[in-house]
Structures are given as structure tokens and as C-alpha cells.
Amino acid sequence: MMLFLLWFKVKQPENISQRQLMEIWKKEAEAALSAVKAGKIKGLYKVSGKREVVAIIDVNSHEELDEILETLPIMKELGHSVTVEVTPIHPYENFYELMKKLS
Known about the structure:
The protein is α+β, with helices and mostly antiparallel strands.
């Protein structure tokens, strides 16, 4: 299990309308909610008041993470307008066990 915190920031390109952006985002939401049901996404949150989404994803490898990111509907259609911050994370319980071992 490899967990990553993904922070997506979407900027609306000047050449597409609000309606077009929402259509693309709807496709992305459908794909994301399917991934939640499949257990690949462990947490999925919309940042209030911003065009941002935060996800916690479970992958088997760095290559799988790259593949997932490159095949997202929003990346295929708006990749140049989406920034993704990727941060590796692990359960706090694991950190606690490490602290017990090291202290």
C-alpha cells in the first residue's frame, strides 16, 4: 500500500465556458466516484469556495500513480490548466510504532 495526498487546482481556460468546464468536471467526478467505490480513492473532498479537490489515493507503485493521473478525464481535457500537488503519506499509527521503536 502506497498512499498519496493529491491536491488538484483547476484554472478555467479563457477559451472555454463555465458550462464546458462543468461538463468536463462532471466526467471527472463520475470517474472519481467510481474509483472511491472500487477502493482506489480512500478520501475525496471538494475545497469549499475554490476550484480545488483533495484526494487520498492508494496505489501499488509510482508508475500506477502516473498512469492514473495521466488518464483522468480532467487531465486529458484540461491538463494544461490543472495543477496537481502530490505528497506521499502513511498512517499515523505507523509513525507512532516507529516512535515507540526509536525512543
